[in-house]
Amino acid sequence: MTMLHAHPLFSRLESARSILVAGAGGGFDIYAGLPLALSLLHLGKEVQLANLTFSAIEGLPPDAWVAPDLAEITPGTAPHQPYFPERTLAQWLALHDYPSTVHALAQVGVQPLRAAYRALIERYDIDAVVLVDGGTDILMRGDEAGLGTPEEDLASVAALAGIEGPERLVVSIGFGVDAYHGVSHGLVLENIAALERAGAYLGAFSVPRTTREGALFLDAVVHAQHHTSARPSIVNGSIAAAVRGEFGDAQFTSRTKGSELFVNPLMALYFAFELDGLAERCLYLDRIEHTYLMRQVSSAIEAFRDEVRQRPPIRIPH
């Protein structure tokens, strides 16, 4: 049994030598895992970074591909592309003298995504995988009134659920940010409680700005906002605002003009889970198991939603 002063997530990773930190939902999700990845690096672990990508990777040169649907992105990859979060992160890592390769996983269905993960795990002899969601829609089991944007997140969960061997964990950071996409965070809390009862919840911890990792995360988000000014990450901008101690409608990009944000300290918390326990609670995971394209994942979720009775939102009392 873990002692209170030792967080269960880090206890689970203590014996791991080589750890993969992977963004589950595309876009800038890997940035949401950066504080954790840096902390593990500072502990002397070998850490590989990967992200299910929204970037245009189809035209990358042959030497960028290490396996089907898996490419290595470096600071100099595809310099002509204005939107490339994996390359932007690789550039920031190089500026700070960290290993500067970020792996891009193609936006594909569960079967090819699992094969790409297997290739990555075998290539680096990975002992543990931490799947990261910037937001909370990875915690939706499928019958909630609003799911957010679950396709990529749950394709990633399903892909890793079928791989045995490494320790597999999930972390979510950015509590509240998915309200914009219709997620009821009252239902998120209910789901976390159910995962606790099932023994799959590993607790939560914050990313303070006074820590080395917190300060570096803030610097990385500013760097990314500067280099992707036309399409900065709303999720990581909100998390960074929370880490800085901002509150309420803390606007930081014109992309949220006309929307009222609710930046709050809970956005700076990592919630940690066992991946198998999370996968077992997803009501449609079996329906996306044999998908090869992301649009098949979307169609399977839509078909499930047409059949299921939805749980109404839960209001968090004032």
Topology, element by element:
Elements: H1 8-13, E1 18-23, H2 29-32, H3 34-42, E2 46-52, E3 65-67, E4 70-73, H4 85-95, E5 102-105, H5 110-123, E6 128-134, H6 151-161, E7 167-173, H7 185-197, E8 201-206, H8 212-227, H9 234-243, E9 269-274, H10 275-281, H11 285-288, H12 294-307
Parallel strand pairs: 1-2, 1-6, 2-5, 6-7
Antiparallel strand pairs: 3-4, 4-5, 7-9, 8-9
Helix pairs in contact: 3-8, 4-8, 5-6, 6-10, 8-9
Structure overview:
InterPro entries: DUF1152. It holds the Pfam family DUF1152. This is DUF1152 domain-containing protein. The structure is a single chain. The protein is of the alpha/beta class. The chain has a single domain, classed as 3-Layer(aba) Sandwich (Rossmann fold). The protein has twelve helices and nine strands. Strands 3-4-5-2-1-6-7-9-8 form a nine-stranded mixed β-sheet, with helices on both faces. Helix 6 links the parallel strand 6 and strand 7. Helix 3 crosses helix 8 and helix 8 packs antiparallel against helix 9. It starts with 7 loop residues before the first helix and ends in an 11-residue tail after the last helix.
